[in-house]
Amino acid sequence: MTLLDKARAGQNALEQIANAIPGYQGYRDREQRRDADRLEREHLAGRLETGKKALNDAAAAATRSGSLDAINDIETARKRLDGLIARIRHADRGYSGFFDTVKVDEATLARVYEFDLGLLDDVEGIAASGGDAKAMTARIDALDARLADRSAILSGLK
Question: How open is the CA angle 145-149-152, to the nearest 5 degrees?
């Protein structure tokens, strides 16, 4: 069951009646897509936060051992991870409102959601990197580059 299906399943009786109104169903579907998109982005950002904890633990261990080179790598990874988390949390929504200048059609939304599901594997890889700052930085940079593809899909460039 997808996040969108879960959002639809949670409708109360009044929402189900309102969906019978001509034109309202499409509006409500867009609202549910927006909610599902927000939930997905929050989940991805939350998983990345676990990778940040591993970096914090690695930084503490490097500080205790006096390994300055490792601390620099860890700080680089931490800064890039913070930027990636912010970028995911504030990414363009897979939704366009009635008055938006760029309208996103259903086929494009489907591509964005499929793309977002693929991001989960990348996020899990970052979270599973443990305290290996160099490996984590490489994965963060790769995911950051993929997010540019998401924006290109939404804008119709890809």
Answer: 135
- pTM for the whole structure: 0.68
Could you give the 3-state DSSP secondary structure of residue 96? coil
**pLDDT tier at 82, thresholds 50, 70, 90:** very high
Task: Work out the widest C-alpha separation in the chain, in whole angstroms.
Answer: 68
| Residue type at position 30 | R
Residue 94 CA to residue 53 CA, distance in Å, equals 29
Helix residue ranges per DSSP H, the chain: 3-9, 13-18, 24-65, 68-89, 106-127, 133-155
Residue 75: predicted pLDDT: 92
Closest CA relative to residue 109, chosen from 48, 56, 60, 40: 40
The 3-state DSSP class for residue 66 equals coil
Is the predicted pLDDT of residue 13 greater than 80, yes or no? no
Nearest to 87 by CA among 27, 128, 140: 140
The CA-atom distances, in angstroms, between 143 and each of 30, 32, 48, 71, 149 are: 27, 26, 11, 23, 10
Task: Give the Cα separation of 126 and 114 in Å (integer).
Answer: 20
